[in-house]
Amino acid sequence: MSVTVVGSVALDTVETPWGKNEEGLGGAAVYFSLAAANYTRVHLVGVVGEDFPQKHVDLLAARDIDLEGLERTPGKTFRWTGRYHDDVNMRDTLDTQLNVFERFHPVLPVSAQAPDFLFLGNIHPSLQLEVLDQAKASFVALDTMNLWIHTTLDDLKAVLKRVDAIIINDSEVKDLTGEANIIKGARKVHDLGPRIVVMKKGEHGCLLFEGDNVFAAPALPLDKVLDPTGAGDTFAGGFMGYMSQQDDTGFDTLRKAVIHGSVLASYTCESFGPDRLATVTQEDIDTRYAEFQRLTQF
Amino acid sequence: MSVTVVGSVALDTVETPWGKNEEGLGGAAVYFSLAAANYTRVHLVGVVGEDFPQKHVDLLAARDIDLEGLERTPGKTFRWTGRYHDDVNMRDTLDTQLNVFERFHPVLPVSAQAPDFLFLGNIHPSLQLEVLDQAKASFVALDTMNLWIHTTLDDLKAVLKRVDAIIINDSEVKDLTGEANIIKGARKVHDLGPRIVVMKKGEHGCLLFEGDNVFAAPALPLDKVLDPTGAGDTFAGGFMGYMSQQDDTGFDTLRKAVIHGSVLASYTCESFGPDRLATVTQEDIDTRYAEFQRLTQF
Prior knowledge:
- 2 copies of one chain form a homodimer.
- Chain A is of the alpha/beta class.
- Chain A contains 10 helices and 13 strands.
- In chain A, the strands form 2 sheets. Chain A has a 9-stranded mixed β-sheet with strand order 5-4-1-8-9-10-11-12-13, with helices on both faces. A 4-stranded mixed β-sheet of chain A has the order 3-2-6-7.
- In chain A, strand 12 and strand 13 (213-217) form a beta hairpin.
- Chain A is globular.
């Protein structure tokens, strides 16, 4: 089984109340891959510039992530700079430099064209369509953001018709559907295409919808969130990776996949960048999976 | 086993996007009592004016709630008027008329002085202290609000030293402790006295803390929230009522008590005022308790 992910690879500068991380490894495809690689073979498709440090490539390769689709082109790597508030649920983007990402058109190497699972990271919907035209996956999920909902809704709707699942923030569901009630919002998203809706709510956990089935998972309460950057993409990686490992997309597997995604996302929050995520072991996953059971059972 | 509740009895005028309810039965002690009465004997302590409709008294009596402590005095009943936004998590208070509540000093009849469980509804902390001086309960919980945190913090702290549990909104935890992180916030509340902290998060459910034990419960996703007024007090009533019925305050009972509170709160949201809550049957409780199991198990 394997998963292909297409998305950003970045150098992130992140400031939180507890410190600053300058030009660290970041990007949706990076967090997704490091999470999913705990469960399955991952093909990463993205682009970096000439300045992308070799150590970051080595870190990804060490987790056995296939980097054939990681293009290196002339120019500088995509950079993002953000600052979190004391309440780490809130952040400001201080700077975004697209650099080589601006002219990026994903090209899937043969190895990545027929995965069992395909994740379309949060990139322009027209690029997501280009990926869909190249890939034959049995299960496709996507992420998106308010920017695309507001500026390229037609393209986004064309993508939504062709995917099985969407992994989306609750505020984005409201923007996409105009519906404040989450149940009605999820139904309206179903009507746009995806039969599975995963609604992320940050520290409040997430909700999983498939038809009339609903599953609610809390986030693991953490006493120190050093840097939540990438937690959503980590979640998606654990979610898709687990489904790929189980080779199943039934609702009971989806429930467990949500917990696996939440487990890995909790590790991502505990360090700047993906440092902690990159060293997660099977034992770490088992320990925290059991914590989720204690946290939720009654 | 029995529970005594001290709190407001009100006539509420509530406007939501789905309609308006003029001068309906309301107040924290009412919602609490109607919820707790599903599990245990309830003594209601509060005050109403001469204008309080007899049909409301009859409704409470029909649920076998002891009304010996419901004082009727010259003057008008406490009135609250509020309007909910399209996003029913947000509301504006349009008018508050304390009326007879302004001079209220709770007097516990003998029958209500030695309950197993005592709930101090959201009233002035100095009144909560007056109640504590009159009652001998083996387990005391209280509710409070931002107003008391900001205006009478010393009194509130004196109450907190004498209670076992606090049932409080997440935003109030932040106000009370200055701590944005919920785990640290809960610990700081523990340090103020209560060994049990129940943190309500509205549509995101709630968190239960006792020492290092944590339990997370979602709210039941509802496709129509007609009027959430009283949901928090209903939750507290189900929570305390179930503990009283079980005659136990161990963590496993507390987990189930949180679900019972959430079950009843979900019914409260489905009608204006306490109409739906007042007709809840054991079968209704069982049905929705099972829904919570399906919603959370993995």
